[in-house]
Amino acid sequence: MKYFPISSDLFARNRNKVLRQLPHDSIAVIHSNDLIPRNGDLFFKFRQHSDLFYLTGIEQEKTILVLIPGASDNKEKAVLFILEPKPEIEIWEGKKLTITQAQQISGISHIEYEHTFHIFFAKLLQHYNCIYLNKNENPRLHTFVKSRDDRFKRIIRKRFPEKQIERLAPIITECRLRKEPEEIALIEQACNITTNAFKQTVPYIKPGIYEYEIEALLTKEFIAHGASGHAFEPIIASGANSCFLHYVSNNTVLQPNTIVLMDFGAEYANYASDATRVIPVSGKFTQRQKQVYEAVLRVLKQTTKLIITGTTILEYQEQTKLYIQEELLHLGLIKQHDITKQTKDKPAYFTYFMHGVSHFIGLDTHDVGNKDTVLEPGMVVSCEPGIYIANEGIGIRLENDILITETGNKNLLEQMPIEIEEIEDLMNSYWHNKKIN
Predict the structure, then answer these.
(1) Do 155 and 254 share a domain, yes or no?
(2) Are residues 23 and 72 located together in one domain of the fold?
(3) Second label for 266, Cα 20 to 30 Å away, from 113, 154, 361, 424?
(4) pLDDT tens per residue, range 189-236
(5) Does 397 qualify as catalytic in the annotation?
(6) Do 184 and 378 form a contact (C-beta atoms < 8 A)?
(7) Can you tell me the distance from the alpha carbon of 316 to that of 308, in angstroms, rounded to the nearest whole number?
(8) 366 tagged catalytic
């Protein structure tokens, strides 16, 4: 790991939150992610299942957590199974966690090696009929790939058909939504790294470079400051590419007098940040680019004021649509009769603003939580309005990460330049002029 150690107290509190919501006559099982084959004998870089990391802090494959809320001994309420360190594995991959190390990271006393799990579990089922099994229930996910949790559920249904199976995901989701102080600090650190990378990268942007060169500069700054890398595939979209919402090719040459939309964020200790800024490639926004930029910035500021305790994403999304509609009128992109004639299925704004304005942020960029979840202190959401004018090659999206607090909200990307003057000053700083000249 590249980050400073996290106190095991955090993971113990997280487990206790889940344990308190489980019936005493049940057990719960949470698996790690798989190593995913890439090609030949290679694997994609391993990233731990967010739920397992949330409950244990362990970042190793073939890890299983069993929660037993009815155990009489508190030290037996959580049992962890880890990969057994073996020389033939370590000679290639480096050291694996020892039981002592796993205890220190997770705060779990009872740890065994993974190959003993099935014997332990079979004995445990002699005393419990209800099993809570985990699953990735993110509504955005559409995949044919079966996770270790999915495969385990199939095994249970086949071998123990008499057992009652319940969903664990709603319980973990409810717990993950409200961040502990340590989690907020980790998200803030991810945001600080992202802000620093932006400031270091923007002065090097100029006509003639490739989008991927910007991606490379951001990556360098992320890694140099302890991030594991990008929290998601970065969008570096110049010119007409800025109107494609999830453009990730990043292989176009930047042209003079165009813009480049940068949607990016560092991942620190598995916690995400998510920022979007728009940069004038030649150092100054054109008059039209400035008009659209200022319109989106006004909507961002207006919507941010609505993100408070007691509201929902769905509620302020509806108000954001009205803000966008008003700005589109001023920009001459729609007329009043378009609004009069619009239908619920075909709103007037949709040609120019076609995505949600907010999502939860945490261990995942699009973190757990529904858009009708009532916001409470400790939750973190994005705020990202946009206007996309495809026939003009202008796509403007601006995004901040907002922490809900008892007294309002806090912009975790407050130090990242966003005003037009700030962006242009950064673009035309000493290093930018030096590179051009």
Answers:
(1) no
(2) yes
(3) 424
(4) 999 999 999 999 999 999 999 999 999 999 999 999 999 999 999 999
(5) yes
(6) yes
(7) 10
(8) yes
